[in-house]
Amino acid sequence: MKNSLPIVITTGDYNGIGPEIITKALTKIPQKADKIIIAGDKRLYPQSITDRYRFIEVPMTTELIYGKETKESGEFSFQCLKKACELAKNNKISGIVTAPVSKNALHLAGHNFSGQTEVIETFLAENGQKAEMLFVAKDFRVLLLTRHIALKDVKITRNLILEKVKRLNTVLKRDFQIASPKLALCALNPHAGENGILGKEEITEIKPAIKELKERGIDITDPMPADTLFVSAARAILENKLQQYDCYIACYHDQGLIPMKVLAMDAAVNMTIGLNIIRTSPAHGTAYDIAGQNIADESSMSAAISHFI
């Protein structure tokens, strides 16, 4: 993913830990200053950062209130991301790294998106492109079929699986240089539905999709119980071995992110794939509870930047 063009790092919600983890992460790679642009307000950063890195100024319109969701911080977060997308649209950058934002703060500012993934898709999708949420920790990868929606609204259909798995397979080949991706699919229901006793989606939707994908030459498992499937992922990480599969595909948010965060929180990176540019982000939120205390761990932000630098 290395490219001669710079990347943009967005500040995120300034009432959270964004500026802190960006500062800590960048302190470790000062020799790459020419490859990085920061979208945000210089007043949020120490002189060691403002003297070294280029900025796209997005001014704060109110004072810092650590740990509080505000309309102003939500608007600031949105404008930082918008600036980054404008540069991407004009082919001025090679990637976007985003610090965490508050969905509620975005909503308070009138931007009714369920997350940064959806904002980026709105600004950058072309010719029917769709953004996907892929979490990566070295060779442990998890794709979410559905993202920030209520569990009661999760609906896994044949067409949804076909669309997203084909897109994932293409991205793994193109952007990760995996010639023949091996994919593992989590079942929706406990015990993969127990032949319809615990749910029929595996029979009516998931298996027909798997059959078609296999006919297209995509190497993907039948639906497997998630509690069993992620055991192999855990063993590989704990024993420092390669993953059996190139990507695990989860039906809903917590099904995929609980194992990812339990097993690899510090190394995990949230990636937006499927568009003409890749965006990475730490796999955690604004951490309002520790904002302003200088105790935030920057490991995930460092990993997000390292995908490009």
Topology:
Layout lengths: L6 E4 L7 H10 L8 E5 L6 H4 L3 E4 L13 H19 L5 E4 L4 H6 L7 H9 L7 E6 L2 E5 L13 H17 L7 E4 L15 H15 L3 E2 L5 H13 L8 E4 L2 H12 L4 E5 L4 E5 L16 H8 L3
Parallel strand pairs: 1-2, 1-4, 2-3, 4-11, 6-9, 7-8, 7-9
Antiparallel strand pairs: 5-6, 5-10, 10-11
Helix pairs in contact: 1-10, 3-5, 6-7, 8-9
Account of the protein in words:
- The protein is of the alpha/beta class.
- 37% of the residues lie in helices and 16% in strands.
- It has 10 helices and 11 strands.
- It is globular, with a radius of gyration of 20 Å.
- It starts with 6 loop residues before the first strand and ends with a helix.
- The relative contact order is 0.18.
- The model has no long low-confidence stretch (mean pLDDT 95).
Q: What's the assembly state of these chains?
A: single chain
Number of helical stretches of at least 4 residues: 10
* Percentage of residues in helical conformation: 25-40%
- Count of extended strands: 11
The strand line-up of the biggest sheet is 3-2-1-4-11-10-5-6-9-7-8
Topology order in helix (H) and strand (E) letters:
EHEHEHEHHEEHEHEHEHEEH
Q: State Rg.
A: 20 Å
Average pLDDT for all residues: 95
Secondary-structure-derived class: alpha/beta
pLDDT under 50 segments (min length 5)?
Answer: none
Please tell me what the overall shape is. Answer: globular
- Tell me the span between the first and last alpha carbons: 8 Å
The largest sheet, given as strand count, sense and whether it forms a barrel, is: 11 strands, mixed
Beta-strand content bin: 15-25%
